[in-house]
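Blinded run. Sample ID left blank on purpose so nobody reads anything into the name before looking at the predicted structure. Input follows.
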Amino acid sequence: MTVTNGVCSDTRKKAIEISPNPFNLRNAALFNGIEFVNIYPNPNTGSMNVEVKTNNVADINIQIINMQGAIVDNLTVKSSSFKSQLDFGDLASGLYYMKFQVGEDMRILKMVKL
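Blinded prediction complete.
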């Protein structure tokens, strides 16, 4: 790398190694969890369809988190897929986060309760 300011310049050399396929170096545990997550309708008026598909049978943890960061609801099921209509009628109107976690793999989606 050479840096110059028009008056002088400085050069530094350092060897770097580039993997031919960096995807082969991924931590397999991080990608052995959630295949997809779908929530609808969003915004909702009290109930929402939730779908989660995993790569294998595992504990699927679903948390509802309010804007202050507090967990207001929590559900764990052991399955390779989860599809259900969840009732959020007791939640106040506002913006929430839905956190889905399977092992180390995590997805966080925004949910609006009208």
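Unblinding after everyone has recorded impressions. The chain has one domain: 2-113.
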